[in-house]
C-alpha cells in the first residue's frame, strides 16, 4: 500500500511519433535534422531517414509539433505532417 504522502512519478510516458519531412537527401541531412530536433528539451531521441523522407521522434509526453516544425525549418527542412 502506498503512503498518502507519496508523489506520483512526474515523468510522462514516452511517445514516439513519425513525421514526413521534405528536403532530406543524404546522410548529412539525416544527421543535421536529428541534431536540431534532439536539442529540444522534451525530445528523448530522434532519427531521420532520407530514403523514406521521415523523422521519428520520441518525446516525454505528446510532442509540441510547432516547436518541432520550427527546429526542422531552422535546420533547412520542412516538417510536412504526421505519418
TrEMBL record:
Domain HMA: 15-80
Cited CDD domains: HMA
Domain of life: Bacteria
Pfam families: HMA
InterPro entries named among the record's database cross-references: HMA_dom (IPR006121), HMA_dom_sf (IPR036163)
Coiled coil: none
SUPFAM superfamilies in UniProt: HMA, heavy metal-associated domain
Record's protein name: Heavy-metal-associated domain-containing protein
Amino acid at each position: 500500500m502506498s503512503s498518502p504522502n507519496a508523489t506520483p512519478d512526474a515523468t510522462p510516458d514516452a511517445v514516439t511519433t513519425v513525421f514526413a519531412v521534405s528536403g532530406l537527401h543524404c546522410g548529412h541531412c539525416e544527421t543535421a535534422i536529428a541534431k536540431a530536433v534532439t536539442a529540444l528539451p522534451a525530445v528523448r531521441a530522434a532519427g531521420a531517414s532520407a530514403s523514406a523522407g521521415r523523422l521519428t521522434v520520441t518525446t516525454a509526453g505528446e510532442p509540441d509539433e510547432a516547436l518541432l516544425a520550427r527546429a526542422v525549418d531552422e535546420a533547412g527542412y520542412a516538417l510536412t505532417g504526421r505519418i
